[in-house]
Amino acid sequence: MPDVFVYSRGDLLYVQSAVAVKSFTVRDLAGVVQETPVLRRDSLPDGGFLTTLAADRLQRWSPSRPCLYELSLDEAPALRFGHCEYGTFGNQAVLLNGQAVYLRGYIRGIVAHDHPNMTGKSLKEACIKNIRQAKKYGFNLVRFHSTVPSAEFVEAADELGMLIHAEIGFSYEYDEAGNKKNLSMDNAIWEAVIRRYRNSPSLAIFCIGNEMHNSGHHPEVKHLYEVGKSLAPNKLIMDNSGWGEYDRDSADLFSQHIAYFFPFKKHAGMFKSDQCWRFNGSAYDVKLEELRHIGGADVSVRRQCTPLRPMLAHEALHYIDIPDYVALQAKFQAFVAAQSEEYLRENEIEEPRYLRELPKLVKRKKLEDIYPDYVRASRKFKETCTKAYLERLRLSDICGFEMLQFSDCLKYENKNGIVDFFDDDKGICPDWMRQFNDDSVLLAELPKENFHSGEKISLSISLSHFGELENPDGVLELHLREGGQSRLLYRGEKFILVPGLQKLVELSLELPACCKAQKYELLASFKGEHIDITNAWSFWRYPQARLLRRPQLELKHSGFASFVASLPLMHSEPGELLLTDQLNDYTLELLEQGRDVLLVYHRDDPWNQYYLPGALERCKPCIWDRGSNLGSILHKAWLQEALASEKYGDLNLYALLEEAYKVNLDDFPVLPDEYFSGVDKPVRDRMKGLLHGVKDFIDEDTLRRFSHLFALRVGQGSLSVCTFNKDSWQDPAAASLFASLLEHLPEKEIRAELGLSELREYLQAQTARGPRREDVMNHFWEIDNKPVEDTLFWEECGVNLAKKK
Questions:
Q1: pTM score of the predicted model
Q2: Which domain holds residue 515?
Q3: Which of 510, 542, 574 is the last residue of a domain?
Q4: For residues 35 and 128, what is the distance between their CA atoms, to the nearest angstrom?
């Protein structure tokens, strides 16, 4: 029977048909008939018919219980459906079957965010693998970016329990100058897609397309919204993903581009800010800022942009890591060898260039020795930042997110997936990720990560609950792990949960004094008859920093000089190390005299005579092709001890790294002894291709050998170079590190050697060449002052995007 529409409202099931139906039979997939008596029959104004059935005996379809039924109408083939409905509550919640649900989405669709069928099996089997893997890591929604999913994927999602956000896509029409003129949307496709999939319970969201600015100003968009609601009243209709006015009424749910900031420290409040809504403003063109002069008074007004609908974080995370390209290429080639040419052709599977070119680049740059550490450090940093992002998001009023992305893309080198492009695990533990990416998660709020010994530690524990049981109760336990020992801090019974976010307890810790840097782990558990969840968070404590002997000081930075001068001494006689922040001829003369010099360097210090090539540092992850920090490597045991860190860096390094500098050792005359390395990304800047047609991997831009701390013999002396942020000395971890540097440097055995004349020639050549500006996307990442790239940024970079359409 053509175009039958089945939808639910509460305990009622509605069947809309073009012709009158005499008999209705509902069966489960085992063939057992369900009791669904007809309650009412109505004729519709368009000549169709609407029949109401009792559905109180049917089980609701949900991601955790994807129960399906078949509806037989007279002699027509059975129609598969799920008893469920979608809705919203004000601007506070997305509802599934009347209960709030936290949407944890990932993105597929266009080629940059997807991969072909890499299973060697049918498309349906590939869809099943992808969905099962995503659910294993805690996801319950998939967005198809500018794409309509295949029938096989929808069928698998119905069966396994995965919500779907589908998009038909739209485009802009441009005038001769390259300026946007009109929207181009296909109304027929919009209607056809909704009719095709509206009976599928997994299809939660029908959306017009991606990143449509000012959608609330287009009447044709509102018309498509109304068409969508009339065709699928039990689904969520979105006008676009990414942009739009905060007060528009052309969508049931907003997906907003919030920021490319990392939600930590100075940007920790980004999910509670209305800054993202101020780009497109109001659908009614009201003023968001006003300055008035009334009766001699100056009145400045800032209107708050409160979204009219529930909100998702658009294209969240996007954090990349570095794979083992040799192993990945071998895996790809073994897969290809096992498939027929027909299979590879039908699925458009070709070996991407980066699988061949990046291993060659690693060899050209002689990075084989350090590359395994690059891989591990990048994975550690990605995991750390992913947890921080999703937990901070969960502490806001935002109703979920759609992440770029769950699976690595095959075509491009930006590896921002949780699994690889085979949908196979790649080292991230599913159980660990579900601690902060599930229906219910425990959350902690600490004022900072690093504490002085003796400092009181105040924190709170909250629980974000979106489970099917509205009010489960349980026992909350908090343990503190220090080294190999654990102690119970708190145990409380009969905590009763409510849907949404609730604070459970506030704590204040006063711990015994510590005599060395120490890492702690706070472990929380909430257990009851129907709930069992855990989570954990790290913090660090540091004793008063002390010096063995005070070095000779030649410092221009007064704050750092005062810090070093104030440190308590174990021995009063001065040390032989000379500490300076000036790279000039005088420093070179000291090396010629055989002095041991520790240079605390930053490119932007105005008093430097010479320039060391490198880049500004930010303690935030790389997003797609933006950025140059994929983690850090602490090569020396004494560094790890000073920071209470493992070999690969954590967020306790934030103060040391943020706004610091890192030296690029690629062209240094000799490879120094590396003590603390930074990890660059193996990714091209897209603007190199768009603006200049350069699509090759450029050695000077890719996997630069960054260092924050290194040493070498220069003539009869030694030069240790440190590029950590000198203004970070008030942070406990930074103070501990700087004191440790002054105690351990120079090391007795420095392998790298360089003649003074060679060093001078190198510095003169680099200084004459001048600082090398970062590429366009890296530059946006390093200035870190705007949520997203705006028109002014592109103009400052000399980029006319309209001409690139």
A1: 0.96
A2: 440-542
A3: 542
A4: 31
